[in-house]
Amino acid sequence: MRDGNIILSVAKAMELLQILSRAGRPLSLKELTDLCGYPKSTVFGLLTTMRLHDVVTQTPEGKYTLGLRLFEYGRQVERSWDISRVARPYMEHLCRQTGASVMLSVCEGGSVITLDQVETRGGLRVVSDTGSRLPIYCTSQGKVFLAHMSRTAAEALLRGQGLTQFTPHTITDIPALLREAEICRANGYAIENGEYKIGLRSISAPVRTVEGKVRYAVGVIGMFRSVHSEEFHAAVEQVCATAAMISAALGYQSNPTG
Predict the structure, then answer these.
(1) What is the DSSP secondary-structure string of 43-66?
(2) What are phi and psi of 200, to 5 degrees?
(3) CATH code reported for the domain at 8-77
(4) Distance (Å, rounded) from C-alpha 12 to C-alpha 194?
(5) Among 10, 21, 94, 155, which residue's CB has the most CB atoms within a 10 Å radius?
(6) 98 in Cβ contact with 238 (< 8 Å)
């Protein structure tokens, strides 16, 4: 069903931009015409108009590709986003799903900073205050950031700070931490099993920006009985789904084929 207010020429122009975005390479007029199915004259007129506004540009060979104006627009949109405002509805839903407290974090200076949190209505408070710094090596959110650094950068960061033994379960061996980071990167999430505070377990997953960079981590923390329990496994799936939804809300598009 079509909305009577839709302007077809604008819709067609948006479709051409989508085709160019998905192609990932410059396309000729014939290729674009074949892919969209519109008459060549229509496609040429749309491309000529979009070139005037710098949202499409031409290569020296005459092929068409996305213009720099789109990059400028994207940067402006990104600057206008407040990550907490974007993530908050998803965090509240995750809290209701899991019954655990939810945190949104960023990595800065080798530590993890809590940007926002949603606490459960239970009596036990398990989330750190917003703005507080947490260790990067023994929290699930910290492990997410380690996992998405180069091995060289992660090792240098770990060697440059003291690795305090907070609990009997805290991992302070650097090779072991690097192996855990590799597992996190492969799995798409990280867990913390009583390594920072006895009795608490957490799960975090990466949140990606429109460029695909891991700038944030979202996770849950609570008194899960075991990392092998059904409730914990369910929470893993819910955290990963929430991270993917926040990433999409920030403009990130995953590539299932690559």
Answers:
(1) HHHHHHHHHHTTSEEE-TTS-EEE
(2) -100, 140
(3) 1.10.10.10
(4) 54
(5) 94
(6) yes
